[in-house]
Each structure stands twice: as structure tokens, then as C-alpha cells.
């Protein structure tokens, strides 16, 4: 029987206290991984997640860090190793939130924040965590991208610019570290249902859903399931991929 078994693996999720991050943490732990729970400011939610992971019989630590600063990411790596051991699975999920505007109105600072939180976070994480993966001859490096990177809709410019830059880093990194048995992939969610939607009863949006071939929005659990698949041995020959999880709303072409 095929199983998504991560027993003995140590995973890091950045932005772990966010809507998607929380589900990723719980799903990774449910499949057997110990988890480094990164947060920037929501310590209470991070500690709550730590308890949830431990209730599943797995180990967990929480680490506060600003993923846009290389020094903080290096400290994150050191605390992860000291607390749990060398990280086998990196999930770059954190991103800075901002108000979308047209190119002509979008503040320059928002382009800078997206570059820092999408591109440079990935570079800092790679520099901090991948060398040990190379030494061990394997690992998983997974980034959370977005369907917006293919949509290029009005108002998305800063977000799209950051995520498309991130895409380039991942594709190059996949070629550079593949010979060491490390896979590098991206998961690209669509407009995803989270606990926030469930609390407000806003799961449905007909305007969005009418253009989705599966005629619905995806769930946070479906995103987490894809992340765990890419973290597992079942995906051992997949690298350099951009995987939309959006019901077919965008479809990469060959």
C-alpha cells in the first residue's frame, strides 16, 4: 500500500501560523514528521500549533524570525538543528500581505516587500538549509507560489512580480542541487478556502468558481496534501515543477 509516510523526517514551515501554514504543519505531523514552526509575530498561535503537533505524538519547536533578514534565517536554521536536528523538508510559505493597487498607484515599498518575502526568503532558506541536505544526499525544498503568477490580473503586479521572481530561483536551484538527490518544487494554490472563510460562511464565490473547471474553490487541506506529497518519497522523481492546485483555473502549457 502506498503511504505518505514522513516518519523520521524533520520539516520546517515558514509562516506556519497563517491560514495555509497551520494546516500544512498539522498534515506534516499527521504523516509522521517532526515540525519546526516558524512565526514572525503570532506566538500564541505558534504555541497552539506546537501543542497540536505534540498531541499527534510528534516533536515540535517554535522559532520567531523575520524571513526577510538573512541573519534571522541563519538563526532559524541554528535553532531548528539545536531543537530537533537537521531539517529534511523546507516549506517556504511565508509572504508579506499588502493592499493590491494598479501599477500606477502601487507604492514602491510593496514591490520591495514582495521581492524580499518571495525571492530573498527563498534564497536565504536555500543558503541556510540546503548545504546540509547536500551533505546527507537528499532533501525536499518546497515553495508556495500562486495561480496569480500565471493570471497577471489587474492589481496583482507586486505579488506577481515577487512570485515570478521566486519561480526563477526554484527552477535554477532544482538544476543545481538535483545531483545531490534534493528535489525543488512549487505548489501554486488558487483562491483557497480556509478557516477564515468557514467562520464567516464565505466559502462560495460564484464569480470566481464559474471559471474553474471543477466549479469550486479548493481547500487548505488540499493544498497541504500536495505539499506532503511533494515532501514524501512518492514524489522522488519530481523536481523543478510548478504545480497548480486550483481546480484547473490556470493550466501550464508545454
From TrEMBL:
Signal peptide: none annotated. Keywords: Oxidoreductase. The keyword Oxidoreductase applies. Gene3D superfamilies: NAD(P)-binding Rossmann-like Domain (3.40.50.720). Belongs to the short-chain dehydrogenases/reductases (SDR) family. It comes from Paenibacillus algorifonticola. It holds the Pfam family adh_short_C2. This is 3-oxoacyl-[acyl-carrier protein] reductase. GO terms for molecular function: oxidoreductase activity. It comes from the Bacteria. SUPFAM superfamilies: NAD(P)-binding Rossmann-fold domains. GO terms for biological process: bile acid metabolic process.
